[in-house]
Amino acid sequence: MAIRFEDIKEHIGSRVIWGDRTELFTPEAAQAIRAKVEERTVLVFPEVHLSDEEQLAITEAMGEKVRLTARNNVQSTDQDVYQVTLDEKINPQPEYVLGTFFWHMDGITVDMPPPFATLLSCRIAPDKGGETEFASTYAAYEGLSEEEKQALEGLTAVHSVRASLSPIADAIPEKHREKVLGIGLVKEHPLVWTHESGRKSMVIGTTADHIVGMEVPAGRAMLIRLQEWAAQPAFSLRHKWTKGDFVIWDNTGAMHRAIPYDKSTGRMMHRTSIAGTEAVAA
Fold this sequence. Notes:
Layout: E1 4-7, E2 14-17, H1 27-40, E3 42-45, H2 52-62, E4 82-85, H3 95-98, E5 117-124, E6 132-136, H4 137-142, H5 146-152, E7 156-159, H6 161-165, H7 177-181, E8 187-190, E9 192-194, E10 200-202, E11 208-211, H8 216-230, E12 236-239, E13 246-250, E14 254-258, E15 268-274
Parallel strand pairs: 2-3
Antiparallel strand pairs: 1-2, 3-13, 4-15, 5-13, 5-15, 6-12, 6-14, 7-8, 7-11, 9-10
């Protein structure tokens, strides 16, 4: 197999290098890519210029695809490929995209295992802002002291859509604010996820509202400190998009967020997701 990987930073991120583009679509490549995503959290394919059909082919070769699309989008494209955009002709209700300006993990408040991976391709790159940042919650957990790890054991956080959108709640039109904030389940997850592999990561981000059994101010302060710890340069990576870039990340071991951008930039991303195979477990 001719594809190879170059590490971007010590604890997170690899760049995928290939010769013949067809090498990306073989079963051997899918297996190697999935293994590298699990190892390095984020993979970057520079300027590969995938079509929707090719992105879906890679998605399905790596695992079962799962549809995590906004019900409000008006798309002429394949519904298994979600268009991430602030273009009001496609996305007349942009609150969920605006909510991605804050650290989060996908699918944490839905009634199924969180998606294993998210796959994002850049169709229109913004000229200002719009980069995507990733923070490894595997590396962040591993970087804690033993005393800090022990303090997190057994703790459970409560997650909700309302919490994830609280930073932009005042910007949601009042006529449908409660409807938007009320969507989704309220889920409890262990703060520390012990994966079937034996590795541990943290389940954190803006969906996490408070910690069961702790005073709300103290619990929220802890959640913010953990976000800040995971987002430090040693454990995080910022990707500046160029048209045609394609990125895959391990959603079960990373937070991500978009750097704010104006809708006038036309930023357009196409997203697919790979179903998770394990529920969050302590």
